[in-house]
Amino acid sequence: MNFAPLELDEQTAAFRDEVLAFLDEHLTDEVHEEEWRTGAGHNAQFHKALGARGWIVPTWSESEGGAGLTPFQEVILERELAARHVPTITKGTTRLVLSAVVEHASQRLKDEVLPGVASGDICFCLGYTEPDAGSDLAAARTRAVRDGDEWVIDGQKMFTTGAQNCQYAFLVTRTNPDAPKHKGITMFLCPLEGAEIQAVHTLGGERTNMVFFDGLRISDHYRLGEVDRGWSVLMGPLNAEHGMGDDRGPVIESRGGMYGGATVDAYAHAVEWARQPDVDGKRPIDDPGVRRRLARVALDLETMSLAPGPMGRIVSSENLIRSARDLIDLLGPAGVLSHDADGAVGGGWIEYSHRFAQGTAIYGGTTDVHRNIIAERMLGLPRSTPR
Ligand SMILES: Cc1cc2nc3c(=O)[nH]c(=O)nc-3n(C[C@H](O)[C@H](O)[C@H](O)COP(=O)(O)OP(=O)(O)OC[C@H]3O[C@@H](n4cnc5c(N)ncnc54)[C@H](O)[C@@H]3O)c2cc1C
Q1: What angle do CA 35, 95, 364 make, to 5 degrees?
Q2: Is there a common fold for 124-229 and 249-378?
Q3: 124-229 sits in which CATH class?
């Protein structure tokens, strides 16, 4: 097997240079500082700059607001954004929902939202989880009741990340409480104007939300797919999030790399720390025990980037949790100093990675749920939870 780095052809290398120049211009210190401060996973100005280049939906044609990139160029773009820690959580949720909108929305709704998505003016968040429905999404209770040409929405969503920066939520609602739970669900691209959004700040530094719907009235043209048949509409974005979607390269390819970025930088900062002499002039890296522990993190990084689909999701999260914990242990007190504290290694990146790591086992479907997906849908084993 050839482990040499991939050589890019001239055209691809030129495109990568274009991406790097774009990042140098638009990814300012202010963008990073805002993300440290808010944990929002989104920067409106940067997002619109991406939109102006056609890089929010880069494989769409220029007339649709894209840039006509090839799927491979899209991979290059996504990798560089990830490597530079661009806050792209809301771009990610918008992209996940887009396939369902393209497939199931009325022409009126497509005309209303698609140009704005491409330009960066419109974003979507995921309105799945509720206080009593997380892994078991079909247990959702948020009600949608038809009233003429409108629907009335009542209920509460939990962990609706990015809602404060989004115009619409891809909303799971119950329209038939008497049907078996998978059969009474209807999906909406629900305008968020009129919903109450309350911030939730996590241990990992991320901002997410509770969203309350109290008699919110929306037009029927915001419905995606048929009434009570929402489960099949939901499946597209959900499968893509679980790394079980179609064969679009970036979605699958980025699974292992999803949390790789945090590990890459934590590792780099730890190596840098290990190369510095202490007060006695000794460098930690000269100790074989330290080198062995750093090498283990480097190996974790390799396996993270190689595993595809739901396997990548699990390995990526679990390796990050283990690596961040090991690095904190290796560095001692300097490793637990947070961003902006004097003497924090790597500007607090290792401490942050350790906190951030914990949530990665939960969102986007927990690692347990991904193990079920591998067992049931890839290995054909019996269902863990009978219908
Ligand atoms: C920071 C953050 C951001 C999030 N962003 C969003 C978002 O944008 N939109 C959104 O809708 N949701 C979001 N979520 C919610 C997330 O998807 C859910 O928390 C997750 O799916 C788990 O649901 P739950 O919290 O209700 O836990 P539960 O489903 O109650 O699970 C509790 C425990 O039981 C285990 N478990 C449950 N069912 C099974 C099973 N069948 N087999 C094996 N083990 C099982 C789980 O792995 C977990 O350990 C976010 C969560 C966090 C923490």
Answers
A1: 70
A2: no
A3: mainly beta
Give the residue among 36, 380, 324 at the shortest CA–CA distance from 206: 36
Kind plus residue range of the DSSP H or E element containing 121: none
Structure tokens given for 366: 């927990």
Ligand 1 mean position, distance from CA 49 (Å):
33
Give tens-digit pLDDT for 158-209.
999 999 999 999 999 999 999 999 999 999 999 999 999 999 999 999 999 9
Both tokens assigned to 115: 């140009």
- How many beta carbons lie within 10 A of that of residue 2, not counting itself? 5
Q: Which residue is listed with tokens 């959900």? A: 238
Q: Where are the domains of the chain?
A: 10-87, 124-229, 249-378
CA 363 vs CA 157, 197, 249, 347: distances in Å: 14, 19, 21, 26
User: How many CA atoms, within 13 angstroms, populate the side-chain half-sphere of residue 387?
Assistant: 6
Cα-to-centroid distance, 174 and ligand 1 (Å): 19
Whether 247 has a pLDDT exceeding 60, the answer reads no
| Ligand 1 geometric centre to CA of 291 (Å) | 36
pTM: 0.94
- CA 123 to centroid of ligand 1, rounded, Å: 23
Residue 190 and residue 123 in contact, taking contact as beta carbons nearer than 8 Å: no
What's the pLDDT at 306?
83
Architecture label for domain 249-378 = Up-down Bundle (1.20)
Structure tokens at 111: 């005309």
Evaluate whether 94 touches 123 at the Cβ level (below 8 Å). yes
The tokens of 239 are what? 């499968």
Measured between alpha carbons, how far is residue 12 from residues 8, 18, 72, 364, 377 in Å? 6, 10, 9, 31, 36
The finding on whether 12 has its CB within 6 A of some atom of ligand 1 is: no
What's the CA gap between 220 and 104, in Å, rounded? 13
Structure-token pair, residue 119: 């330009």
Q: Which two tokens stand for residue 175?
A: 């329209």
Classified as helix, coil or strand, 112 is helix
Measured by CA distance, the residue closest to atom 11 of ligand 1 is 128
Q: At what angle do helices 230-241 and 89-104 cross, to 10 degrees?
A: 140
310's tokens: 């739901």
